[in-house]
Specification:
CATH superfamily of the largest domain: SLC41 divalent cation transporters, integral membrane domain
Number of helices: 22
Strand content: 5-15%
CATH topology of the largest domain: Tetracycline Repressor, domain 2
Strand order of the largest sheet: 1-2-3
CATH architecture of the largest domain: Orthogonal Bundle
Distance between the termini: 72 Å
Oligomer: single chain
Largest sheet: 3 strands, mixed
Number of strands: 6
């Protein structure tokens, strides 16, 4: 049975059919269906799940969708669900929730779970401390491999992961880590300190969650140990949580690069008003910025009146310059996100992009010259070709360096990416075009 049939079952209020559909589909498919529906239908379907599958489905949902489900549940089921959540998942949920909802969740928790959740909420949003799991199994440096494996068997069910195990001294200070594979394959009489990877870095609670997540990606590990200011182990960031952080960061960057404000929740469940609100603010700002282009056209009105044919090539030059700048900006934002660029690389990036822009501009200018010479005069074709080269160099430099400059002053690089760069290049590109045209045509 496909998802279209589920829609028919819901519309027909066929409870038995809905239960069959929910039973036949895996948790991630069910979670996607709940996320795309309104609160009433989502809660109805969730209540039809058996207890074990309900928890698995709930864990697959985004925080905003988890909140939607929880708000429609009775107190007993509500308490069971929030108690069963991992502390880090619970902290992420509450970090985006209203105060009233947060109080209800905390009031329904056992003292131990409430204490762990409150500790995570004490860290600043966006840091590793907020999303780490405090349920971590540490190994004392003097333990033998045999003792360590016994400890893993005994305490493994209580913690987030057993595949990466921090090694600590008697003061719980981080010394390195060992993997479960290494323990299983090692001599039982060896000590864990002999196996520990002492040169592998951990993360501090105040570090950026995105930076820590990308560090896991670079190190190819299943978990990253989290330490406090005194280098004591306080938690662990697992690879599944890291992937969610990277996905959220990339989603936000894509939204900002397209000139919209990021929204929460499933696209199909977000209201039309919310989607419009996320876009209109940026479009208004870009309209204001686009008035620069109008001002430039007015300033060079006399030039256009003398050689009307110049106007025919404005879309070509403006469009090419904007696209060239957007390409460079997108590359720079991505390189910043994955750590390939730093804010101090501005001059090197400007020089690099200027050469890229020159090569691209020359290639495009050859085509543009032939076209312009065919439909206009040779002198206008020269003006268009030269303008195209200069505009491509300028646009690539602006697009490549603006995200780095933004990061240096504390602004999200994605904010000053494609749409803003395109608008800026449009106005400045026209100035370049008209100045070159005046010089070539002698007007």
């Amino acid at each position: 049975m496909g998802v279209d049939e589920l829609q028919q079952l819901v519309a027909g209020n066929d409870v038995a059919g809905m239960q069959r559909w929910l039973k036949q589909h895996p948790p991630h498919v069910v979670a996607d269906e709940l996320a795309r529906r309104d609160a009433i239908d989502a809660v109805l379907l969730f209540r039809l799940l058996d207890k074990d599958k309900a928890l698995a489905v709930f864990e697959e949902l985004e925080p905003v969708d988890q909140q939607k489900i929880l708000e429609g549940l009775r107190d007993k089921t509500f308490r069971e669900l929030v108690e069963a959540m991992a502390p880090d998942d619970r902290a992420i949920l509450l970090g985006e929730a209203p105060a009233k909802f947060t109080r209800r969740v905390l009031a329904g928790l056992s003292p131990r779970e409430r204490e762990m959740t409150a500790a995570l909420l004490g860290y600043e949003d966006g840091t590793v401390g907020r999303i780490m799991s405090p349920e971590v199994l540490v190994l004392r440096q003097g333990l033998t491999v045999r003792q360590a494996l016994e400890l893993v068997r005994r305490r493994g069910p209580e913690v987030e992961t057993i595949y990466t195990l921090p090694v600590v001294d008697d003061s719980r200070r981080y010394l390195g880590y060992v993997t479960l594979r290494e323990l299983v394959l090692a001599d039982p009489n060896q000590t864990v300190s002999e196996l520990a990877h002492e040169d592998e870095p951990g993360a501090h609670t105040t570090d950026s969650a995105e930076d820590a997540a990308r560090l896991i990606q670079e190190l190819n590990v299943l978990a990253l140990t989290v330490v406090d200011s005194e280098n004591r182990v306080v938690g662990v960031l697992t690879v599944d949580d890291a992937l969610e952080v990277i996905e959220a960061a990339d989603t936000e960057d894509v939204a900002r690069q397209s000139g919209t404000t990021p929204w929460s929740g499933h696209y199909m469940a977000v209201s039309v008003l919310s989607l419009a609100r996320s876009r209109v603010v940026w479009l208004l700002l870009l309209i204001i910025a686009a008035t620069l282009t109008v001002g430039v056209l007015e300033a060079f009105e006399s030039t256009l009146s003398q050689v009307v044919q110049l106007a025919a090539f404005i879309p070509l030059l403006v469009g090419t310059g904007g696209n060239s700048g957007a390409q460079a900006a997108t590359a720079a934002v991505r390189a910043l996100a994955v750590g390939e660029l730093r804010s101090g690389d501005v001059i090197r990036v400007a020089f690099r992009e200027s050469r890229v822009g020159l090569l691209v501009g020359v290639a495009l200018a050859a085509v543009a010259f032939a076209f312009a010479a065919l439909v206009a005069s040779t002198s206008i074709a020269v003006a268009v070709a030269l303008s195209l080269v200069v505009i491509c160099v300028w646009a690539a430099m602006i697009g490549g360096t603006m995200p780095l400059l933004a990061k240096r002053v504390g602004i999200d690089p994605a904010v000053v990416s494609a749409p803003l760069v395109t608008t800026l290049v449009d106005a400045t590109g026209l100035i370049i075009y008209f100045l070159i045209a005046r010089a070539v045509l002698g007007i």
